[in-house]
Amino acid sequence: MELRGKAHCFGNDVNTDYIISGKYKFKTLDMRELAKHVMEDLDPEFAERVQPGDFVVAGSNFGCGSSREQAPLALLNAGVGAVLAKSFARIFYRNAINTGLPVVVCDTSQINAGDELVVDLKDGMLKNVTQGREIPVQPLPSIMLKILSDGGLAEHFRKYGTFNL
Amino acid sequence: MGKTIAEKILSKKSGQNVFANDIVVADVDFRMGQDGTSPLAIRAYQAMKGEGICSPERAALVIDHSAPSPLEGVSALHTLMREFAQGKGIRLYDIGEGVCHQLIPEKGHVGPGSLVVGADSHTCTYGALNAFATGVGSTDLAAALISGKMWFKVPETIKFICHGRLPLGVYSKDLILFLINQVTADGVTYMAAEYTGEAISQLSVDARFTISNMAIEMGAKVGLMEADDKVMEWVRAHSDNKFETVKADADAEYFAVKEYDVSDLTPYVAKPHRVDNGVPVGDVAGTPIQQAVLGTCTNGRLEDLTIAAQVLEGRKIHPDVRFIVAPASRQIYLDAMDAGVLKTLVQAGAAVVTPGCGPCVGTHNGVPSDGENVISTANRNFKGRMANSNAFIYLASPATVAASAVKGEITDPREFL
Ligand code: SF4
Predict the structure, then answer these.
(1) What total number of domains does chain A contain?
(2) What is the pLDDT of residues B352-407, one digit of tens each?
(3) Structure confidence by residue, pLDDT tens digits, B136-151
(4) Are B60 and B91 spatial neighbours (Cβ–Cβ below 8 Å)?
(5) Ligand 1 centroid vs B328 CA: distance in angstroms?
(6) Domains and CATH numbers, chain B
(7) Pocket around ligand 1: residues whose beta carbon is below 6 Å from it?
(8) In which domain, by residue range, is A92 found?
(9) A90 and chain B in contact, CB less than 8 A
(10) Do the domain assignments include residue A85?
(11) What is the ipTM for the molecules in this complex?
(12) From CA B18, how far away is CA A162, in angstroms rounded?
């Protein structure tokens, strides 16, 4: 699975209330509507600026906070191709895999906003094309790769009717 | 090799001999969803082409986050939940019953050794009953409803040993705010926390729930405690189900063991906008507040309301403060009524709202205005948490919240005891 996109940089501890505020998430199941407000409190122009396939790049503990799956879904629907962070909060990480949003654990400290990046999830390598350097990536456990490559847990269940990992 | 509580429960439920970092598919005893997460779970169920629910009697949906509905769009989602629950034979706790994390234990659905998944991050609350209970997302919930199973990475465990006894005016909320401050918001990420020691066994079961509830605020997957006589008595009073308690082995392997003596702990307050931003109450005493909140799944139990009532007995809320009280369940509401606790709170000036999440997550029931300070017994003070990113939320114990409501500024409750 090779992914390519531009970096949009954020800091540490980006919580689920920042990704999508509770004031929107309870109102609707329309993910395109939610996508308009993604990351709004941290970067009001993000939703307009992000191009399909672009990467959200963050520090540690990305996605801490609630279990709301609206967080990865709003990112996906805004066009985000993957989230790269030094570490993820557990439930967000799970939800991202389950909804089909690739999540990559790596050292993000050298990545700048606007850098063009290429990630290979299987081989565990991240290339910063702009800077001409490679960054090692923690490989995904096979169970998660399987769910992700099926397109998320819903697709996995649609295919097999139960866990087939 | 010995096992932690987490390793034992996941070994039993997966039928395999597993240790930290193994990945298993395990049988889940109970599944829960609330009104912020269930609608998406129903969508996921449909996307999965689900054809039924595995053991529907071992699942429940709860309408607590926006209850009663403040908006047409929310009402439609509630209707979706009611129809789904009725169609599938799943129990639904409707508006006014209470917060999911009070109801699931109170209605007897969980006990020692249970494996529970809930589509809500504070599902870890039931760890106080010796249950491996963890928050998952909506898609996970749908998969668990269909299959009765869930995949888990067996977590490593950090053990917290709390020595000594909490002094007068210092409560389990102060203790957990202190511990989170010590290890930070991601200090236990992807791991299990085990809480033990004299300071824990001294606590009532109500008070222990507060600690396990906030395990997620240190990043933990579960916040486990052993089941002692107090827990067994509590469980027997609420459930006819049979449970088997799970103890950690003496030679279990821990990622880390952290020891604290809490005999000199002071009341603690988490400053905006981070839960790990805790300080002794003295550091923020005098900060003016406009709203005080007593309730939520962290501190909306009878013991919490009673402690607040002790502080408020014969006193009045400061005229510049709005004091909002949300009992965690209908049962607690009734018990607080019978005990005269509710009367004391209302006489002091409380606005009591429907049992449920109350204003905790900004869906209704008291959204603060720009620039306002709120002191709350909840578990999160993130920017925008109560639906206004220009408000400031301080987290504290019921006693500190009540004392602060009286003085109109953050106040050390020991002045009132
Ligand atoms: S009371 Fe607050 S933290 Fe608890 S379940 Fe409700 S919204 Fe979540």
Answers:
(1) 1
(2) 999 999 999 999 999 999 999 999 999 999 998 999 999 999 999 999 999 999 99
(3) 999 999 999 999 999 9
(4) yes
(5) 10
(6) 5-259 (3.30.499.10), 270-411 (3.30.499.10)
(7) B 65, 99-101, 120, 122, 296-297, 357, 360-361, 378-379
(8) 2-137
(9) yes
(10) yes
(11) 0.88
(12) 22
